[in-house]
Amino acid sequence: MLLPSLEDGITVLDVDGSRGVPILQSIVLDHLLMRDGPAFWVDANGHATTTTLSRIAPSQRLLDRIHVARGFTASQHYGAVCDLPMAVNHCIQESTTEDSLRGQQSTGHDEDTSPYTPSLIVAPAIDAQYRADDTLGEAQAETLQARALAKLATYAEGYDIPVLVTRSKRDEFAAPVETAADHRLECEQTRMGPKISGDDFETLLYPVDGGAYYQTTFAYWRQLLAARATQVGVEPATPSTPTQEGVGTGVTADGETVAATADPLLDAWTATGTGGR
């Protein structure tokens, strides 16, 4: 209700006005709560901060399922992206071996998830290291970023999982990130909290003390009333457009039928025989 579900393919998350570290981490943790399997995080610019993760994670076991690689240069970042399948295989071998030694069989939340194969890949600030590396020319940096995006798209298709990315800036250099994305989420800060919008999702409710919820967007009430009208069989009324001649007729207190304009006060003020004017 408050956080979007991630679909298979590349999803780009744009956060208005900040890096959006808590929002990014909240979406990742929410996804891991709903699906089995580890998450593989190729970090840049310190988005995988353990301080924030530990504060918002409901359990330490959830954090144990996040595997982080950090790239401090463009070549390191690209190398971490290329080595991701090797990290996945190593994680699967370790997990299956540990479960065999314990004599336990892990079960998934549903038939479509596995406790061993990846459930999510995260690559925040996907453009940061490529745009900041002084050892690369502009064309080389763009090419290396494009190859990293192509690798992530291959992993998304091969593992049938979501890949969540962000970008440090919305400019021409980072335009290929949005081009490669299958889905887009945008988060804007409001007085009531972060509002996330996507193709099939929009944050409409905000939690308050006591377990209640409230919202600030007219879209929610419009949807709620439209659904209620459909339920009771009431068709939405189409508002008529007033003309200069009037919007219909009315009856005065004396029983006289008069033309009504768009302004009821004007009708009463100009009516003949009422002592006005």
Automatic annotation (TrEMBL):
<protein>
    <recommendedName>
        <fullName>DNA recombination and repair protein Rad51-like C-terminal domain-containing protein</fullName>
    </recommendedName>
</protein>
<feature type="region of interest" description="Disordered">
    <location>
        <begin position="97"/>
        <end position="118"/>
    </location>
</feature>
<dbReference type="InterPro" id="IPR027417">
    <property type="entry name" value="P-loop_NTPase"/>
</dbReference>
